[in-house]
Amino acid sequence: MPVISWEDPFCGEGANCFRIGTDTEGNAYIAVAGQEDRPLTDSREALRSLILEIKAGRADHLL
Question: Rounded to whole angstroms, how far apart are CA atoms 45 and 63?
Answer without folding.
Answer: 20
